[in-house]
Amino acid sequence: MSHKLLKMASLTLGNLLVALAVTCFIVPHGLVLGGSTGIALIITHAVPLPLSLVVLVINAALFLLGAAFLGRSFAASTIFSTLAYPLAMSVLEALPLGQLTSEPMLAALCAGALMGAGAGLILRSGGSTGGSDVIALVTHKYLHVSVSALLWIIDGCVIAGQIPFSNFDQVLLGILTLTLLTIVMNRVMIMGSSQVQLLIFSAEHEAIRENILSEQDAGVTVIPVEQGYTRQEGRALLSVIPRRKLWSIREMITSIDPTAFWVISEVSEIRERQLRRRA
Which tens digits make up the pLDDT trace of 46-60? Predict the structure, then answer.
């Protein structure tokens, strides 16, 4: 039950952050935006309707399209955001929040950060933002075109549709918002699971292995290796560790074998399992 509550809380907070970014930063400064919200912005410039209502109609139509062509699993992951996002927008539109900043650059940065964090929370919780993603996914299913390429094309067309009623600064700041959105979203999706991979080559691999297991409280895998030049066989150690342990492990390796060679690389996600040491 607690896991389900946490998932619902993350989905709710994610949609609220996206709605806050659009209502308080995107709309007041006239910044361009992609996706279903960008389509809604184009429509509301031609027809005087509440933005939240137009977003709801567009998302509902795309949700039905996705449910028909992509199946129940897609519908289950998308239905919450289809309703929660425009509902949150309608609530925020009714509040006297107004323009939270008079600086367009600051508005673009805040919008990108909030939307990225919100979208990251939604995707991290197993949900989907739906919207224009549905068009890309349906097209990919039948025409086998890259989803990422389709999303860029769709967003490009939506942004181009807003150019007639936007100035050059608003277009550039909108693109900045979308770029920051992508960066923050990717960071939020892997938040808490980012670690480093340490690949160690040393003649004292057994002593280093024992220290990593007993003193550093980390896992390690022994890999048979062969040197490319000398063809001499040996052992390499592979360990995935939190960043906070990197310095102490490097110091330990140097103290055991000053001639050791190691490679450090970033790991964005790891699936762990519990192992018992043999007596």
Answer: 898 999 999 999 989
